[in-house]
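Case study 2.
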Amino acid sequence: MDLVPALEEPLKNVLGPPTAKVMAEHLGLHTVGDLLHHYPRRYEERGQLTHLADLPMDEHVTVVAMVADARLHTFASTKAPRGKGQRLEVTITDGSGRLQLVFFGNGVHKPHKELLPGTRALFAGKVSVFNRRLQLAHPAYELLRGDGEEAVEAWAGALIPIYPATAKLESWKIGKAVQTVLPSAQEAVDPLPDTLREGRGMVSLPEALLKIHRPHTKADIEDARSRLKWDEAFVLQVALARRRHADAQLPAVARRPSPDGLLTAFDDRLPFTLTEGQRKVSQEIFDDLATEHPMHRLLQGEVGSGKTMVALRAMLAVVDAGGQAAMLAPTEVLAQQHHRSIVEMMGELAEGGMLGGAEQATKVVLLTGSMGAAARRQALLDLVTGEAGIVIGTHALIEDKVQFHDLGLVVVDEQHRFGVEQRDALRGKGKQPPHLLVMTATPIPRTVAMTVFGDLETSVLDQLPAGRSPIASHVVPAADKPHFLARAWERVREEVGNGHQAYVVCPRIGDEEDDPKKAGKKKSPEDEAEKRPPLAVLDVADQLSKGPLSGLKVEVLHGRMHPDDKDAVMRRFAAGEADVLVATTVIEVGVNVPNATAMVIMDADRFGVSQLHQLRGRVGRGSAPGLCLLVTEMPEASAARQRLNAVASTLDGFELSRIDLEQRREGDVLGQAQSGARSSLRVLAVIEDEEIIADARDEAAALVAADPELTGLPGLRTALDALLDEEREQYLEKG
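Prediction:
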């Protein structure tokens, strides 16, 4: 019997324990298969060597160059007082620039013998500056020896794979290890069905692995990459398709609103008409709720597009049909706010069982972790008896103690803060799985929605309700043009003078202990603006009250305040008793004060694109136009400034989410959204490979519909197990 399949062979058996240990600890590679799937990041062409002229500071680099000269110097030092200290200085060149290498002490002997003028080699190390010149100290190197003319020709034309490496393990050592295990690639089991692979003219998996690690031409690399991208997209889409398929098999209670019940009464008392978009999306949701298997729908809508209204109508439809609805919010501030606004929107319809309540009314309860014991007991009682048709809460709703009478719908606000596991825990609360509606105000490009939320159907609200005002956004370069910042505070005073209110947002609170470890080292002059710690709420509020905003009523809000204090501040601000609210990003989602028209975001470069877009959505919620000022000290040419210019130039969240994704690594975006496997993309780029992902989704759906158990595809089942294992592992770690 075959002891261990070739690709599952532990690396320590093949490469020896020391190398295997470094690979496991620093790169997360444990088996031969893991190493074969550690793909090169790029390829060096020996004929066109890396330009020494544009080496990045403080980064590990690999360069191919020729030794121009080598000199051995002796010097006196504390360790070698008699002038016996030795320093070898080697200058290398590639035609575009020169670079100094230095070796000290006993480390000089080997390079002194080997690095003779005219020698060509691969050098790897961290670029640093000494005496205003770039250098590599003690670089690792690999001599490039060619015998005879042909060998040199072949050598110059070859493509050298450069692997994602670490300080402990250089790229070419990884390359050598890959060459050792490459023969095992022949035994790789192909996850793609033959018909799919042949139909799309793709190379087999063993061939793709050979071509990506040992390409002869650029076409080889292309073939390999397009094939491996398909693997990643397809296996992930099959996992999602199977999840959708399994969900569709679950039974659910169909919930149809009664013709003259709570929903009709609510619609009749609305002081405005719903937008076309709200009506269309509501209809999609009502159609889903009327089926006998659970709805799984993602509702995307720009900040202020009226998602809460759509969600509330869905909840009322379920209450009408005799069920209960639960809404999960990511923070207490937000849960309290949703509770307040829903009770206000419903009026007497939210006073079920009370004097003065309408006859179709129900009870709307709030459940959060910081509630008093008596209020909490009452809320739990209302849920278990069915007295409360609607409950709004935080993670507290997922706790074991919380029992429902008949949970029919779960609405999750701001999905990216809830993983799959929490959705599942809440779904387990119903006698049968409840319907699920997930809302997000962070616009998600179509392919990310397919990849990250691929187990959900998607609805998009892209119209703003009537009466919403446009928001003007401007970048305020505080370092280049200090008078712009002074003008920003004047603008805030003007808005307040006109009877409006303003937010000032800062990246941190300001009562943290300073970490001495972080204080020490700093980087290049580009990072001047990064040198100081990010501006803090408590300091800024103090400076503004004494300085540019003196005489105005300035309040503070941040995440470490007691929930009651936070709520009190928000109530005062909403009631117009405070002029300016200096806050952290706790106001990012859901805070609704129509009278607030201006927002100044300090150190705006410290926030992500989608976060800035979310924050900006807090102003311009009434009839007066909104103003958002992005204050930064970053220099004009920096990437951070370009990012801010992009935010200032468009209010289209979908456009911004694309920019955001192109600037960050996908892994961050996907990793945030769900557990591990989604971020294990190695060659697939979510934005560039839109077509592959869409095609893979169609192919996966067709395959799973025809054969949900994947009976004839052992390779695909193995690949799925590996993907889901990684997911499960991440989940356990989080647990």
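Residues 218-249 form the longest helix (32 residues).
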